[in-house]
Amino acid sequence: MLNTIFATKIGMSQAWSTLGKRLPITKLFVDDNAVLSVKQQEDQLFQAELAYGKKKLKNVSKPIRTQITKSGFSSGFQQIKAVKVDENTKAGDTISLDQVLAVGDVVAVQGTSKGRGFAGSIKRHNFRSGPSTHGQSDRERSPGSIGAGTDPGRVWRGKKMPGHLGVETKTVLGLVVVHIDLEKKEIWVNGPVPGHKNSIVRIQKTGTKKEIELDGSLFGDKQEEQEKTAEKSAEEVTEEIAEEVSVVEETAEPAVEETAKPANDEALENSKIKETKEETPA
């Protein structure tokens, strides 16, 4: 059974559980993973090469380009990694989000941390700063002594000192998948994930589950609420139009009666004139 899939980090947000607890949320975009090849190892386990990330085929090296075309794919990929799979997985298959993950899965997310450049010992190793008074006007953030002078007379290997910080492979354990949107190919995990935005991360299931119910009225049911409000507004508009039409009809009926009155009066006068003429002798 496949328990690993690659995704793209979108960014962080927040959501609330049904108990009212605020949760940090990391949104991940999980596009389809392509299986380029499947090989059986000596320990009878199957290992597949999963390709992920869109890239122009002409920008891929020629050996990988031929491997991609033989597998039946027409576009290039940003990365190709080896993953353990089962015997049912074959070259040329595409692995989607719903085939691997489900709501409640506890996962381990691996990525490359952000690069911080050259950092001091306080930022890099959480050292405590020195006193800012008593002559220490320019030594507040210095690492201090790095070893003895005569014996050993050198600096031990691995000494914590200033240097490059970041761009390291980090794995965060115990994250829970709290929401899955199959239309957008998006999942939400409760916690931070290493790496910058649009970086590729590796999601691996640990085999356990944990239920965290989110408050749907705050994030998931917004579309339904918008649809309901749109329907209500449409009904209100139709009711207003019907009321206006009825008012116009009511105001138009008296005008018709008033225009009809003079015609009736003229008919009565003509009938009276005829009667008087008939009564007068010739």
List the helices and strands and how they pair.
Layout: E1 4-16, E2 22-29, E3 33-40, E4 46-55, H1 62-71, E5 76-85, E6 94-95, E7 105-112, E8 117-119, H2 121-125, E9 163-165, E10 169-181, E11 186-190, E12 200-209, H3 222-279
Antiparallel strand pairs: 1-2, 1-12, 2-11, 3-4, 3-6, 4-5, 7-10, 7-12, 8-9, 10-11
Give the H and E element order.
EEEEHEEEEHEEEEH
Instruction: Give the CATH superfamily of the largest domain.
Output: Translation factors
- The name CATH uses for the topology of the largest domain is Elongation Factor Tu (Ef-tu), domain 3
Please tell me the overall pLDDT: 85
CATH architecture of the largest domain: Beta Barrel
Would you report the number of β strands? 12
Largest sheet: 6 strands, antiparallel, barrel
Query: Helicity level, as a percent range?
Result: 25-40%
Order of neighbouring strands in the sheet with most strands: 1-2-11-10-7-12
Radius of gyration: 39 Å
Structural description of this entry:
With 282 residues, the protein is of the alpha+beta class. It has 3 domains: 4-115 and 165-215, Translation factors (Elongation Factor Tu (Ef-tu), domain 3, Beta Barrel), CATH 2.40.30; 116-164, no CATH class; 221-282. It is 26% helix and 33% strand. The chain has helices spanning 62-71, 121-125, 222-279; strands spanning 4-16, 22-29, 33-40, 46-55, 76-85, 94-95, 105-112, 117-119, 163-165, 169-181, 186-190, 200-209. The protein has a 6-stranded antiparallel β-barrel. A 4-stranded antiparallel sheet has the order 5-4-3-6, with helices on one face. A two-stranded antiparallel ribbon has the order 8-9.
